[in-house]
Amino acid sequence: MITNQPRTYYFLLYPLLLVLTACGAAGPAQGRLSTPARQTPDAAMSAAQPPVQVEHTPTTSRPPAEAVIRLNPAITYQTISGWEATAQAGQAECPNFNAYKDNLFDQAVNDLGINRLRVEVRSGFENPTDYFGEFLRGQRPIGDWLDHRYSLVNDNDDPQTTNPAGFQFSELDHTIETVVLPVKERLEARGETLFINVNYIDFATETDTHYGHPEEYAEFVLATYRHMQEKYGLTPDAWEVILEPDNSAWTGADIGQAIEATAARLLAAGFTPRFIAPSTTDMDNAWRYFDEMVGTAPGSLPYLAELSYHRYDGSQLAEIVRRAERYGLNTAMLEHIGSGYEDLHTDLTVGRNSAWQQFTLAYCETDNAAQYYWIDQSDPARPVARLGEMSRFLRQYFHFIRRDAVRIEAETANPAFDPVAFINPGGGFVVVVKAAEGGEFTIAGLPAGRYRTIWTTATQTNVAGPEVTLTNGQLMPVSIPEAGVVTVVQ
Fold first, then answer.
1. Numbered ranges of CATH 3.20.20.80 in the chain
2. For residue 139, how many other CB atoms are within 10 A of its CB?
3. Nearest partner of 462 among 391, 372, 386, judged by Cα
4. Residue 233, by phi and psi: left (phi above 0), alpha (psi -120 to 50) or beta?
5. Per-residue DSSP letters for 293-325?
């Protein structure tokens, strides 16, 4: 849905948003705003809690078949590109942002494991008036900016000739300087890299618009690429074509034609086109928009990297996967307020996602599953970034499964212990098990090495079990005291 805490200022509509979300409704597009090398990643991401000394001894004897998870590294699936958050941390609207930002970014990168950001750009960036910049400087009330954030005024009548005075990038600059660069620097200190996904948003009602005018859209995209490169030395890793087209006038044909025109402009300017689409509110619309996109604009397909969807409605995930497999595309679930580890697990296994996002990084709001961190302002002079309830469980995946990790086959006959397994870039194995109940099981197929166990349940967070050293052929014993998520990491 639309992100507006810089998507912004979603605190104005937040109560309505929560009601709509609780009822399972997508809501109107403008009802949700944005709340809100490489050292071996598996070695770099370490558990924060001291280990709990629970004795386990590896064994070569087999417990009952239903209690065994079997790995097969010879069968591989998707490669992870990142754990995404919208680059909204309350930087423009939350009081005392400077007092909590450093701790927030430290936690987000080093503990939760965020390594991919959605950086939003609005159709209203093409406008001779800098509404956001004037608001930020105190020259306009917030309402003026909100009323004009999608007000597109064409820079001129020639999409091949750009008038720099017709584009205003103050909101993008503010997001990059206050969120993107701090996260990027922290990842680089770990020997990792940030995936930057620039997401275009257009909920315009004016006559001037980019949909249906692919050359004008391409001009906008190229102007943004050049601005980011010239001012910050940044190039998007991907461009998400349009946020929730099923909440706007955009069609699948519009998306495909925009990709074709934009790819040509980017290539001519020396950039590598890589697009994400269609990012519909309803996952069932994702494959329908995709079919229309490739049916009317087949030239868009070579430049499409991810087939994306949101989870606000729909159930036909298999249709998305079927198309992704047919055309060799990655899949990604890139927004759903309220999604927790259950949805993430399904999207990784059934949906074969390479990227996943709940929603924004942080916001000065109560814990409502719209942001990974909520800003506790009980002491206004000393705000504190606190990990959300659902984020406790998401950490069991994000923290240990790193960018470029490859998913491998993991199966069991016992649905109470549902596994997903990966091999990280450094070669370390990670097995995450969604446990419907407490109990014990074993893992077969792990290579020789030393392994840690970490679990989170309704009553415990990030509890470290004993380290176990395995030789080839030994089974890894694992236990969790109650329902939750348990991670085994090499």
1. 10-33+81-400
2. 11
3. 391
4. left
5. HHHH-GGGGGGEEEEEEEEEE---HHHHHHHHH
Per the CB < 8 A criterion, the answer to whether 475 and 58 are in contact is yes
CA distance 154 to 163: 9
Q: What angle do CA 244, 79, 111 make, to 5 degrees?
A: 80
Q: Quick check: 239 and 255 in contact, CB under 8 A?
A: no
Provide the pairing of β-strand 439-444 with 449-457.
Answer: unpaired
Q: Which ranges constitute the DSSP H helices of 91-211?
A: 97-107, 131-136, 142-148, 170-175, 181-189
C-alpha to C-alpha distance for 185 and 188, rounded to whole angstroms: 5
DSSP per position, 57-118? --BSS---GGGEEEEEEEEEEEE--EEEEES-SSTTTSTTHHHHHHHHHHHIIIII---EEE
For the chain, residues classed under CATH 2.60.40.1180 are 42-76+407-489
Q: What is the spatial distance between Cα 203 and Cα 123, in angstroms, rounded to a whole number?
A: 8
State how beta strands 417-423 and 429-435 pair: antiparallel
| H/E run at residue 393 | helix 389-398
| CATH (one of 1.20.1600.10, 3.40.50.2000, 3.20.20.80, 3.40.640.10) for 10-33+81-400 | 3.20.20.80
Torsion of CA 402, 408, 409, 413, to 10 degrees: -20
Tokens coding 34:
């944005």
Alpha helices in 157-281 (DSSP H): 170-175, 181-189, 214-232, 252-268
- CATH number, domain 42-76+407-489: 2.60.40.1180
The angle, 0 to 180 degrees and rounded to 10, between the axes of the packed helices 389-398 and 341-349 is: 30
Q: What is the per-residue pLDDT for 331?
A: 99
To the nearest 10 degrees (0 to 180), the angle between helices 214-232 and 252-268 is 50
Which pLDDT does position 65 carry in this prediction? 45
What parts of the chain have a pLDDT lower than 70?
1-66, 205-208
The values of phi and psi at residue 287, to 5°, are -75, -30
Contact 235, 241 (CB under 8 A): no
